[in-house]
Amino acid sequence: MIVRDTTLHAKNVKTTFQPGLLTKWLLITVAIGFLGIFIVVPLIAVFSEALNKGVQLYFAALTEPDAVSAIKLTLITAAITIPVNTIFGVFAAWAIAKFEFKGKNILITLIDIPFAVSPVIAGLVFVLLFGSQGLFGPFLEANNIKIIFGIPGIILATIFVTFPFVVRELLPIMQEQGTEEEQAAITLGANGWQMFFRVTLPNIKWGLLYGVILCNARAMGEFGAVSVVSGHIRGLTNTIPLHVEILYNEYNFTAAFAVASLLAMLALLTLILKSFVEWKTKKH
């Protein structure tokens, strides 16, 4: 009798704390309103301002030489950053998830540094290392190697701020899967590369794609670290975000929003791909 009464009381308590219909729709309304104010409205403002003076001026702003140079530099930076961070992310996640070694927690902490450090501070660190007055500055100048205020510095800064994305997406997936399948593959005679391509990679492919998508979005939209190391040289070291800043400071608002619309479209594409990958991951 006591057990029955306790069970009945627990059911009543559970029922009492269920949210009502009013609470449900209130929370949904607040969430949608928040997203509308801080995401949808700014996106509409960007595209409306970009097309404010007509489609012809819109495309003229995108095909202007400095804009084309900024787009090319952004694509080059992303094309180098993504493979480097993908390889690092896979190897780092594999090492952390599949092996036990001294300094494992230190490695995880180091991977999280770009999340904790301001991108501007990261850019300043590269200046202190590779600038003309930096630690390696005299050696670089003596050998006519230019990193700061050049494309190498932009690529290094972008790699730094984006390298946690792939490894942080893969790490929980690999930890959850364990090592049983890899051990079975080794037992059946597979070598290391066969085990990776036939067992490990198929199990992490959607998480890997998810991390690559986030890494690409951050690489193309990075401003703080790149702004410090680039030198803002028009037509040479300006990426898309830096070019937008220069146009806006010159009160060329139509061109600034036109170029900014490229980043907005990238954000929308990232959200679409992100949702698709999440759906495939859950299905898998």
The gist of it:
It contains 15 helices and no strands. The protein is an all-alpha fold. Helix 4 packs across helix 9 (151-162) and helix 4 runs parallel beside helix 10 (164-177).
Describe the overall structure.
The chain is mostly helical. It is 81% helix and 0% strand. The protein is built from 15 helices and no strands. The chain has helices spanning 2-16, 21-50, 55-63, 65-98, 104-111, 113-116, 119-130, 137-142, 151-162, 164-177, 180-187, 192-221, 224-230, 240-249, 253-283. Helix 7 crosses helix 9 and helix 12 (192-221) runs antiparallel to helix 15. The longest helix has 34 residues, at 65-98. The two termini are 46 Å apart. 30% of the residues are buried.
Keywords:
284 residues; 81% helix; single chain; mainly alpha; globular
Which helices and strands appear, and what pairs or packs with what?
Layout: H1 2-16, H2 21-50, H3 55-63, H4 65-98, H5 104-111, H6 113-116, H7 119-130, H8 137-142, H9 151-162, H10 164-177, H11 180-187, H12 192-221, H13 224-230, H14 240-249, H15 253-283
Helix pairs in contact: 2-15, 3-15, 4-9, 4-10, 4-12, 7-9, 7-13, 9-12, 9-13, 10-12, 11-12, 12-15, 14-15
